[in-house]
Amino acid sequence: xxxxxxxxxxxxxxxxxxxxxxxxxxxxxxxxxxxxxxxxxxxxxxxxxxxxxxxxxxxxxxxxxxxxxxxxxxxxxxxxxxxxxxxxxxxxxxxxxxxxxxxxxxxxxxxxxxxxxxxxxxxxxxxxxxxxxxxxxxxxxxxxxxxxxxxxxxxxxxxxxxxxxxxxxxxxxxxxxxxxxxxxxxxxxxxxxxxxxxxxxxxxxxxxxxxxxxxxxxxxxxxxxxxxxxxxxxxxxxxxxxxxxxxxxxxxxxxxxxxxxxxxxxxxxxxxxxxxxxxxxxxxxxxxxxxxxxxxxxxxxxxxxxxxxxxxxxxxxxxxxxxxxxxxxxxxxxxxxxxxxxxxxxxxxxxxxxxxxxxxxxxxxxxxxxxxxxxxxxxxxxxxxxxxxxxxxxxxxxxxxxxxxxxxxxxxxxxxxxxxxxxxxxxxxxxxxxxxxxxxxxxxxxxxxxxxxxxxxxxxxxxxxxxxxxxxxxxxx
Length: 477
Ligand code: SAH
Ligand code: SF4
Ligand code: F3S
What we know:
Blueprint: E1 6-8, E2 14-17, E3 19-24, H1 28-43, E4 47-48, E5 57-62, H2 67-89, E6 95-99, H3 100-106, H4 108-113, E7 119-121, H5 129-137, E8 142-144, H6 152-155, H7 161-166, E9 170-174, E10 176-177, H8 188-191, E11 196-197, H9 200-212, E12 217-221, E13 229-231, E14 237-239, H10 240-248, E15 255-259, H11 268-276, E16 283-285, H12 293-298, H13 305-318, E17 323-330, H14 337-350, E18 354-359, H15 377-401, E19 406-414, E20 420-424, E21 430-434, E22 443-451, E23 456-462, H16 472-475
Helix pairs in contact: 10-11, 11-13, 14-15
The chain binds S-adenosyl-L-homocysteine (SAH), iron/sulfur cluster and FE3-S4 cluster (F3S).
């Protein structure tokens, strides 16, 4: 059988289909976007290559959040150029594209600095990919970083059931994009634009398709996912709590998660959803960045530490088992030893099961980049090490507290050793279970027997397969 998009070989016979490879950097929203771009390329007849060097088209989906992340693009393009030279020597070729947040932030500068790049396009333009690729293939250097008015999500093709199945039983679903908060350190409002919520009807339709193709756990994504305020199916505006309730009704969807949340948008209804919805996992990523009120004000986070403590207390009242994770920045301009001590104190008081912590990175065009009193690198490094030691201790303590507990695990994939499967606990920890491969994709009940540095190890106690939702009592493990 001939592929739709095959090319004529030297003898006029059709040869292999065109191939693509998308390499993803940055956050989960980029992972979702890369999947949508793959789906679009799939519907253009492209097939996925084994790796970037084997592909006719390579797209780098990039991240601009910190300097190190952004600089990766250039080393990657340098490497790809070598692979392309090799392909050209063998009579082939390769198109190199830069998508994502670096593309949006740097645009034309990318082709000036890395002329090997054939196409540059920002996150709001992905639905125009077929046009961009055609133009680049005919020799044009394409640079597209507009914020068009049309809804790219509506225009992007959705994954075919077999594509969904190949990605497993968990899926990301972007429901909100962009940010209007303008924290003084952050590029996201500039790279992703203004806050936009997708209409509930479209989200529900996509979730139903995913569930029909076997997805059991959905993670709703947005840079400010809990600021969601989309048009509901009843014409009214829905918040995230309302949307979660509707998603929980979908047959096959057994677990719901959402990320990333902003403390200012943790409203009462969302907190109540953590009490009322068995499908909503007892885990929340709630970035705080700093425990110092002075820093929080300079960062323009729009809340203080008391508000953060208050939210945590209300969440724990609603869902006593809830586990919290967070993001931290150390070495923000002007951060003193006392400010940093406030961060350590907040961490001790709250207790986090997971966290991402970073040294402040000055980003061009953001207000904090021009602030006085940038903190010396060795001071930031020392603070980061101290903070990470405490966070690691808390993570290990939480893992140890799961030993002996019985819980549901959604088995996702093969483990490292034969006979092992790996899934996630309700608290997002990887759990390694000795189980037959036939249980891949199923929700099982396990008892945790030990905790390693990154994973829990558990025994299967009940391989009852919950085709529908697990019984409410069991879901409360
Ligand atoms: N919308 C999310 C954050 C998205 S960016 C929120 O409001 O929490 C992910 C994380 O990257 C941030 O939480 C922050 O900890 C980190 N980050 C963002 N800009 C940064 C910078 N300039 N330097 C260091 N870390 C940064
Ligand atoms: Fe960036 Fe702040 Fe918006 Fe989060 S809330 S994306 S940190 S500006
Ligand atoms: Fe990076 Fe853009 Fe995500 S800057 S963190 S890829 S929104």
